[in-house]
Design a protein that fits this description.
This protein has 306 residues and is α/β, with parallel strands linked by helices. It has helices spanning 3-14, 17-48, 54-65, 74-80, 112-125, 156-161, 178-184, 209-216, 230-237, 242-245, 260-270, and strands spanning 87-89, 94-99, 102-105, 146-150, 167-171, 192-195, 198-199, 206-207, 221-224, 249-253, 274-277, 299-303.
Length: 306
Amino acid sequence: MTLHKRIKKLYKSILPEKVLDKIGFIQNKRKYGALQAQLIAYLSAQNAKKMLDADQKEILRNLNTKGLTPFPYDFYYNIINQDVVMHWDKDQRLPYFIFEGKKLYFPTEISAYDAKKLFKSLIGEQAPGSPHCYFNGVHVPKSSDIVLDLGAAEGIFGLSVIDQVKKLILVEGDGMWQKPLQATFAAYKHKVDIINKYVGSGDGDFISITKLYQDYGDISYIKMDIEGAELDMLSQISTLSTSLLHNLTLSVCTYHNQEDAVMIKGKLEEMGFETEFSNGYVFFYYDGNMTKPFLRKVLVKGYRAE
């Protein structure tokens, strides 16, 4: 951990959470306030023309009254404003939260304040009906599935499906998450593999989708959240034998880049998949290339017609 990160973690361990919340609000306002104002102005103009759907109307109302979040929905504000309890595992020497009755571990590199914020955002993302929830609709992992989680991070997706699936392969290149992932899935070593690499072409820190199929055979469900590299990964998957893809379902994030939703949906359909977007939108203001209409679709499912 760098000196700057150590100092930042130290002050976050000293200052009260309400003070840190206020600092965060001011920083976000300074950094993203102009973009928020642009979105409000755009949605207001569209609303005057009666061109907003129910989700967009809720987002407009909340951005005007409740402040800035990526998911400006009532349910999301309720979740991120609640209190959560962070526990300490003295044997693992790691913090953890209880999620769906199981321990979800976090790295010590993250301050307690940031860990709580991240955990609340994660449970908000995976709340029923959330645009980012992987389990809306009928195309969800089954008991016979070999599931590949590309961009596993803390492992919340895998923890949600581990009791239902045949095999789970977690691919995460950020070394910060390796010890927490090992702790989270310690009771499932018989059906979980954790790969400390990024998925992609090249050697060293990367593992290719071809190698993953060589090692695991009939992968039948892929969850993909790889920070904007989703379209490139689909291109690599499309080069595989069609016999490997006949039973495949994909759940792919579509919000990291401005045109991802259109491009990823098109690529999946080109590959012979039926597609279905999750409901709702994200305001992904972390991307410096935001343009109208600002709101982005979050997830698309690719599946074979039955």
